Amino acid sequence: MREGLSRRQALRLGGAFGLLTAAGLSTAAALSRRPALTGAELRSAVPLPPPFQVPLPLPGVLAPVAPGRYEITQRVAEIEVLPGIRTPMWTYDGTFPGPTIESRRGQAITVTHRNELPVPTVVHLHGGRTPADSDGYPTDLVLPAKWPADHHPMPDPRAVRTRLTRTHTFPLDQRAAMLWYHDHRMDFTAPALWRGLAGLHIVRDDAEEALGLPSGPRELPLLLTDRAFAADGSLDYPSVDGTLRERPGVRESFLGGVLGDVLLVNGAPWPVHEVDAARYRLRILNASNARHYELEAVAGDGRRLPLVQIGADQGLLAAPVTHAALPVGPAERYDVVVDFAGVPAGGHVRLLNRLGSGRTAEVMAFRVARRARDDSRVPAVLSTDLTPWDRPVRVRDFSFRAGRRDGGSGWLIDGRPFDPARTDVTVPLGDVELWRLVADVHHPVHLHLAGFRVLSRGGRPPLPQDAGLKDTVALRPGEAAEILTRFDGYRGRYLFHCHNAEHEDMGMMANLEIT
Questions:
Q1: How far is the C-alpha of 178 from the C-alpha of 328, rounded, in Å?
Q2: How confident is the model at residue 328 (pLDDT cuts 50, 70, 90)?
């Protein structure tokens, strides 16, 4: 948000910080002093279950229809998210989250998506090193059976649209990591995510498996989301057009982002999971639209268990990093090891969110059931393939700020809203670049195709959670960060954007052409 916005405009773009701005504080200073996050929270109209009663579900692993070939159907399904209540959701193969795809580094696969939903969809493998024609560009729509081929609010002459199905090819020539797939339809990503279109994709390799990290039942994927529920049990979301067919956007008070009052882990509200008194690998994804978390693990006696980070968005770190509390912005992934050996049998460990209040301060719990043998370890050296890149051949500056779009409020990159017909950045294949990113409010900035290293924040060294190779960096209000990246892999049209999904839908996205 630019300095000098009116009090009314400030309130429209995120809530309570507008009062502080109107009182004479800069936007950045105002936001840095408030514990709340960018966005406004919906309150559910149904009774909510007590915490730590629902067992933690684990997403099923998708079986291939043939070696290296997978098929997924996008369809409406009724899901029991809250106990005893059936909620209509948009799903991948009838589940929320969608089924997990397990693959091997360097072994290419194809995934064919069939769209049986009432609107067009796009699938993006977030974190994938993917050829441009399979990356999920926002206008490369998969149209449902009865959708007019030319019906889209912003025509794109380069778009490749298909009817009913689309096959994506993923070479998976990349480091072992936990990726995720989700809808990426232009102008409607946020409500599609909210309705359930998200799933995990785990890439494995021999080197990681040889380390002796916790595995099997002691490797837990944790997909974090927040939602709100209407009185009839359906998902509440403030779309201006509930059909998601014509007019994009959310009601005025939610322009900063949409938060829910129910925290879900793998689609279950405040679940509990039974564990051994041993090390566990928690593979954490923040798949929320706009909510940020700061996670800590607290035992029943008040003791904080260390969160030993071993991986980031794009795979293993060079060496472990230990956190007392771990910030996680939208779309960020963190692999952490938690050791329950010091917790007595029958004890509990709660995973808390220090950025939440009331019910949103609780995430889930672990119940330590028994003593058990533990042969796992966390080696001092995790990876040796994080070689430094060459010096950058150029430096670019980008601002992520609120502004005006089409006569209304929007979120812009360098003062411009997204336009699929415009090329914003052109980079020769293989070039190394340094990007300087500046934010007005919270903006988790995601770069397609290429991973990057965070070099600095506010002119100072990066934060502990910035270690390793990332594809999303959570910028804080008023913050500037430097990232270094190499654009290798494939030529074609890609994107970078804010992964606050409401910001993305309201214009905070730009084109990146690799030549």
A1: 15
A2: very high
The CA distance from 86 to 46, in Å, is: 12
- Portion of the chain with pLDDT greater than 70, in percent: 92
In which element (H, E) is residue 432 found?
strand 432-439
Q: Are 92 and 72 in contact (CB under 8 A)?
A: yes
**Confidence band (pLDDT; 50, 70, 90) for 156?**
confident
Facing residues of 66 across strands?
69
pLDDT at 155: 74
Instruction: Spell out the residues 6+ positions from residue 233 whose beta carbon is closer than 8 angstroms to its own.
Output: 46, 82, 85, 86, 87
Q: How far apart are CA 272 and CA 347, in angstroms?
A: 12
348-403, pLDDT tens digit by residue?
Answer: 999 999 999 999 999 999 999 999 999 999 999 999 998 788 899 999 999 999 99
- Please give the C-alpha separations between residue 426 and each of 193, 415, 495, in angstroms, as whole numbers: 29, 18, 11
Q: Return mean pLDDT, the chain.
A: 92
> pLDDT digit string (tens) for 9-19?
333 333 323 32
pTM to 2 decimals? 0.92
Q: Where are the strands (E) in 192-332, listed by range?
A: 198-204, 219-227, 258-259, 262-265, 268-269, 272-277, 279-286, 293-299, 304-305, 307-312, 315-323, 326-328
Nearest to 267 by CA among 199, 338, 183, 192: 199
Strand, helix or coil for residue 7: helix
Q: Are 292 and 224 in contact (CB under 8 A)?
A: no
Q: What is the tally of helices (H) and strands (E) in the chain?
A: 6, 35
What does each C-alpha distance from 292 to 21, 220, 269, 441, 475 come to in angstroms? 22, 21, 17, 12, 11
